[in-house]
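Let's study my pick:
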Amino acid sequence: MEKQNLWNNVMDMAMRLPGVQVDRASFLRDTLHRFCTREQLEQAISERPDVVIREDVLQEIAQSVISHHVLNVTTISAAAGLPGGWGAWVALPADLGQYYWHCFVLAQKLAYLYGYPDLRRVDGELARNLTIFVGVMMGVAKANEAINALARKVVESTVQKMANDTLQRAAWFQVVQSVAQAIGVKLSKKKVATIASKLIPVAGAAISGGFSFLTFKQGANRLNRQLQQSMAYFQTVDRADVPDNVQFDEYEEV
């Protein structure tokens, strides 16, 4: 429970920052208008981007979005490492908050590129869905299982019903709790490493920035691959059955 509370505190801090909730239609309109006609853009928003934009192009767009957030995370983290010494204790909360703010924003953007509906309106529990996405970024195996289940429910159009189904809601809550606990364990290790890097004056900036660069980029690419594979479910939206043989990446809990 202690580890889960650690994640809940970090999430609460990041969720309070402005701009953490991404409007799907606005993001897709701003991002895709250079790659399609006005009519295609409206279709991408009302349906899914892959309906009008090739998958390889979506991948290029996704990598561009990832690079943007990697740069910002690294820059801010390096700046937070500049105080050195005991100033690290002051900088650490802000650094963690901005790091996971970027995780949350990036996760929503990638999800929208690959066919997810507006996550702010799915079941009224944006934080729970973001916990799953961050779990994937951090290599939590249970999060991969959960994101697969979420993709299936989007296809089956039952996500909205989850909020009104007590049993399904309770089961989903247990899944999210399990992922949050696993994230908390990993987060406590990351926190120790981050503190250690910041305690070194001046050099702490380079170490902190480099640490954030590696962990964020690796996690972003994990999530990108998993969400890209979710399109295999979304592309069956007009079919009666969802295929059971779609393969998803698995990651070891480290």
Observations:
- The two ends are 19 Å apart (CA to CA).
- The CA atoms of residues 82 and 202 lie 5 Å apart.
